[in-house]
Amino acid sequence: MENTWSLLHGAMNAADTPTGLRRGTVRRVARFARPHWRRLAVFGVLTVVSAVLAVSTPLLAGRVVDVIVGDGAATTVVWLALLIAGIAVADAGVGLAERWQSAHIGEGLIFDLRRAVFEHVQRMPIAFFARSRTGALVSRLNNDVIGAQRTFTATLSGLVTNVVQLLLSFAVMVTLSWQVTLLALALLPVFVLPARRIGRRMAALQHEAAGLNASMTDQMTERFSAPGATLVKLFGRPDVEVDEFGARAGRVRDIGVRTAMLTRWFMTNLTLVSALAQALVYGLGGWLALRGTLDAGTVVSLALLLTRLYTPLTALANVRVDVMTALVSFERIFEVLDLRPMLTKTDRPTPLPGGGVSLEFDDVRFAYPSAEQYSLASLEEVAVVDDRGGEQVLHGIDFRVEPGRMVALVGSSGAGKSTIAALVPRLYDPDSGSVRLSGVDVRDLSFATVRGAVGLVTQDGHLFHDTIRANLTYAAPAADEADIWDALDRARLEPLVRSLPDGLDTVVGERGYRLSGGERQRLTIARLLLARPRVVVLDEATAHLDSESEAAVGAALADALRGRTAVVIAHRLSTVRAADEILVVEQGRIVERGDHTELLERDGRYAELHRTQFAAGTERSTV
């Protein structure tokens, strides 16, 4: 196996290695293969056995010819024929076992790669998903992982088999006749030169095709969703979409045709050279046999061994193309794995005390990271990622919320309220200062503890394309039927769900698109109620509800939040009047704090927002 990795390493570091590939990729591939070393070892042994059996048959065939020409015994021919048949049966069995091992290695690698990429992507910050194309990420987990898997199921399998068979065939041929062997290898340069020229071109084509396939997947993912399809129809651009998709698909088609023709041209030339070499063997071998310096059976053995020599040479000459293609897939996977997650987990998490949980922001400062820290140009379908960022958006935020108390955040759009909300469940970490739950920095808690203690409902709460039951129990897998109906009742959704033909087993559609906006939002609130977190953050949670629904859900939330720490963000000031404390946030700073009455009497920014919303006796959510 060490020689195999050396060959792969040589292919990687050759002079015509595509510039898109980084050195060291092969070593990383080897690290992924290390857990499968036992199967790789068994595979190597089977490969050697298969090669020995393959070389044995030509030698026995030559022996048969010698017996026939030398007027030997018929029983000898029969026994040799039976031996050849037995070797064929054994070779078939070894081939099946060899394939069994390589399939397990390849499928195991697919599992390892997919799990590694999926787990790594889950640890990326929310900003990563906001910038990355969904289709491009899906392509890395599907097309590129399968392309990388071919390294072990096809390329590696063929490489090991062909190397062993080539060495054995060459050794046997030299012992039979070094003159004929040297003549047969005279055309060897014709195998090597095309491989070096074509390898780089094939890798570049495969790299371009992978990017185009990712773009098509992304376009389909976005346009085939209900919101995307609605947007396309509203602005009347289906023809433009078809043309854009067709342009990418057409380029993939052209690349496929060009790749097929390059491969065919290459293989045709190599097959032709192999046939010419065999003609040379018959010519020189026959001449030597007629002169009496070579047995007739040896000539036959050499001719048959030549196929065992040139077939591996043909495959090995083409293996560079396969290796480079597979390395492109590995490289695209490693690109994602090399992205550094913004959040790190502590090795020794601190337990969170029981009972009510307090929330405290202590001199918190935060700046969103620039895209180059967490994104890839290939995932965004841009030439270079946007390097802007790093400007501080929170400047010394300080406040404390006691258990059972509610704090409201109000202010202009873009003031930093949602950023504050995102720091509580640790979607991001502050650059300085700390966010603490019951006196414990959230960075010292395990992710599971934070997720279990904090519940967040945003203004666009997401629902999976699954049943109502599955969407609710995602937050509380152990919840029983009574818990589910209780949460739906408190979210004022029970009558609606009971009226549906499939009840809790009703599929809500992608992103919950089969429900109205208010119904979707109430379902996300029911999910929060079912999770029963000790800290609740509502980021415009009632933004999509009409007045009647808002009043009903408000009453449910008032009951659900009793005894829990609550942070509520709302543009409608009518929804935060009952807060124990109201924080007015502007330009990343808390500029005012107090209850509703105190802030109105102070006649500051809060009073200004209040007058704007309630001008002429009508509340408007424009702030």
Short summary of the structure?
This protein is α/β, with parallel strands linked by helices. It is 61% helix and 9% strand.
Chart the SSEs and their pairings.
Blueprint lengths: L1 H11 L12 H9 L3 H33 L4 H49 L3 H6 L2 H43 L1 H7 L4 H35 L2 H9 L3 H53 L5 H42 L21 E9 L9 H4 L11 E10 L4 E5 L6 H7 L8 E6 L2 E2 L5 H7 E4 L10 H6 L7 H10 L3 H6 L17 H15 L3 E5 L7 H14 L4 E5 L11 E6 L2 E6 L1 H7 L2 H9 L10
Parallel strand pairs: 3-8, 3-9, 6-7, 7-8
Antiparallel strand pairs: 1-2, 1-4, 4-5, 9-10
Helix pairs in contact: 1-2, 3-4, 3-6, 3-11, 4-6, 6-7, 6-8, 6-11, 7-10, 8-10, 8-11, 10-11, 16-18, 18-19, 20-21
Any overview of this molecule?
The chain is an alpha/beta fold and 623 residues long. It folds into two domains: 2-337, ABC transporter transmembrane region fold (Up-down Bundle), CATH 1.20.1560.10; 359-374 and 389-617, Rossmann fold (3-Layer(aba) Sandwich). It has 21 helices and ten strands. It has helices at 2-12, 25-33, 37-69, 74-122, 126-131, 134-176, 178-184, 189-223, 226-234, 238-290, 296-337, 377-380, 417-423, 447-453, 468-473, 481-490, 494-499, 517-531, 547-560, 596-602, 605-613; strands at residues 359-367, 392-401, 406-410, 432-437, 440-441, 454-457, 535-539, 565-569, 581-586, 589-594. It has a six-stranded mixed β-sheet, sandwiched between helices. β7 (535-539), α19 and β8 form a beta-alpha-beta unit. α3 (37-69) packs antiparallel against α4 (74-122). The longest helix is centred in the middle third of the chain and has 53 residues, at 238-290. The protein is elongated, with a radius of gyration of 35 Å.
